[in-house]
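Hi R.,

Here's the chain you asked about this morning:
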Amino acid sequence: MYQTTKSDKKESVWLSKLLLSCSLKGSFIPKVEARDFRHFARFRKKIIEEIACEKNGIIKVLEGANIKLSSVLSNFDGVAGNRIIDTLIEERVM
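And the predicted structure, written out as tokens:
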């Protein structure tokens, strides 16, 4: 359980005095458009991070199977890399 301290009591008294004297500013609340933009920017960042995590996982699995695409391709998630990975998957399944 949260326990108050002497400083908490002093701060609450100080804040109440400031509030009563109208010395406190209200919190900044951005407009709906700005909130939506922030939400989508955070969502985009999360998706990009998840994609990078999945790519790293693919590289780890391939290197665990002694397949090092980075020695052949500079960008394994391009068209050529995807074709190689698709071929590897098809050969493994069949």
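DSSP finds three helices and no strands in the chain.

Let me know if you need anything else.
M.
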